[in-house]
Amino acid sequence: MKRAHIVGVALQLYxxxxxxxxxxxxxxxxxFCKVWSSGESCENGDVKRRINLPWELLQPVLRIxxxxxxxxxxxxxxxxxxxxxxxxxxxRALHDLNTKAMLAxxxxxxxxxxxxxxxxxxxxDITESNTITL
Length: 134
Hints:
Blueprint: H1 2-16, H2 23-38, E1 41-43, E2 47-49, H3 55-70, H4 76-96, H5 99-117
Antiparallel strand pairs: 1-2
Helix pairs in contact: 1-3, 2-4, 3-4, 3-5, 4-5
InterPro entries: Hyccin (IPR018619)
Main location: membrane
Subcellular location: Cell membrane; Cytoplasm, Cytosol
């Protein structure tokens, strides 16, 4: 877990500079997340191991992917790549029965779904009405 903590700190530093990081680096990061969540790494052609998804790593990864989704300057390729990476991480969380990861990745996917369904709705707008809806 010490390694996971160290890498998590490095990812936090990456996230702290995310507005200045070029889009190509963010695309590479999304591709890395897809490979990481696939859960298999081959060595010598016959050994397959599952790479752990500790929370210390997953939390900053999801922050970075969230920025790629909801960033102010939307790049369509980056947006689609981030959705794919989050979908892969969600599938891995379901496979591992990792409840924290399922909740976090599922929430990001729900945000994407809500954003795509209603681009023109302003949820901060308060409407005046005499009816109560539940």
